[in-house]
Amino acid sequence: MVGATNNGVPTNLHLNPEATQNYDPRAGNFVFERFAAYNFATGEFEMAALEAWSIEGQTVTLTLRDDLTWDTGEDVTARDVLTQFRLMKKMKASLWDFTESVEQGEDDKTVVLNLKRPSNPEVIKHTLANGSLRLFAYHPTFEQFLDKGAEELQQFKYEGDVVASGPFSVESKSKQSWELTRNPEYYGADNINFAGISLLSRGDNTALQQGLMGRELDFVTSLFAPPKIVANFPDSVEEVAISAKWGYGVLFNHDDPDFGKRNVRQAVAHVINRQQVAENAGPRTKAPAPKVTGVAPNDQETWLGDAYDSFESYGMAESQTDKAAALLREAGYSKEGGTWKHSSGRTLGGTYYTPAGWTDWTTATNTVVDQLNSFGFDFEISQKPTGDYFGGYVESNFKIGAFYWMPGGARSAFPYFPLRWQLNIPDIDGGHNFPEGEQTVPGMDGGEMSIDPLSEIQEVSTTQDRATTEEIIKRVAWHHNQNLPVLGLVSKLDQSWLTDDEWDIPEEGSDERAVKWPSEWLPRQGQLMAEK
């Protein structure tokens, strides 16, 4: 089976997941087994390396499959997992946000996490089922780093004798490709009826698209392709669309004299027609957020419940210019010569940052800025290389710009993660400067509501009662809806690609396709097989 990696030339890449620079997850995800996976269609977790997990009080018990082995034929044991978890502690992995210590359980297939405090089971499960968490730490290889610093672990390029826990082993790598062979020691090896996988080195989206057009590639794990490109794919190429729990939004610098004002942020929200942004940026893969809050669009009605209709929509499919104008006048702005200005004479606008090369985001940014300037803001767009783009946000060197409004992936299906993320955005070291402490916003039922949103959402991580969790999420989501730490505009679907001319794959719409990523998950299940 032929796929591709666009993470670089394989000879420059390695398979140490803790050394993120030059680690190639495209190969690593075939070589290393995951602990568990989240199904985006069913909302359920599916076991992989784990036979079971149980959470009682401050104890999490993980039971490994009895038939889980390394490709050497040796059993994967608690010792291997403990080694990995202890190395993850050096790297400040999120597992250790709630874990005090780890130890072997009653046998060598059981691992116990001792928690710092009672913790929400959903937080623990999403952490363990995170798609980037793979079972890689073969103890004889990684034992040497237990007594060394994080820097030495990060410098280790795992590329020689890589020991696999997943369905494929590393045979070789070259400038042209990774060559992976079927691992006969894998517990699901009988589900795989082909010899291996070639991952060809391809530099960019265009090369990947051409690989599908010419049927050089049997699959592409993740690839954005606009409608005009998809129309040129052979009939044998099938798109698998999975919710990304991620999408385009607007980031404000809360220290800015203009965009640090709630009225101004709300005015921006009222002006932007989210439906038009989605249609322009990619109607096949984009959808407007029905409510502006930190909860993923498909999950809003479930989590907001009876309060859903009370949440401000800010006009999903229209520009509510009258409401925006009233908010600006109330905040001390007036329109002069078609442009809004503060009473001090300061023009309301500035530089709007967007990342260069993110083609769908470029279209979204052009739409947003056109809408805002038509209303009377005065923005100019600045496209920044990715490094400078993130760097400017980290250094708070901005007023307003494009940014994703959820951290993405399975964890964003549980609102605790995106609601907390919007307040401190670790991706930019909190460079949007959202203020800490108590905030006062209009109440759900009139009057005012005082809330410390970060403190409240953190309570979810230690709450084991579902009703309490729902109430906290509803309150913090209301705060985000009113105070707009980040303005969420659209969500997206991730596009994954399979082919069916030489391969048997699940039918379109089947739940089996909804684990990320199908090309990696389906062979494990016997759901992606060579035609006989």
Automatic annotation (TrEMBL):
In the record, biological process GO terms are: peptide transport
Residue ranges, annotated region (Disordered) = 1-20, 278-298
Name all Solute-binding protein family domain ranges.
51-410
Classification via InterPro entries: SBP_5 (IPR039424), SBP_5_dom (IPR000914)
| One MF term in the entry's GO annotations | peptide transmembrane transporter activity
Q: Which SUPFAM superfamilies does the entry link to?
A: Periplasmic binding protein-like II
PANTHER family in the record: PERIPLASMIC BINDING COMPONENT OF ABC TRANSPORTER
Recorded protein name is: ABC transporter substrate-binding protein
Tell me which species this is from.
Haloferax litoreum
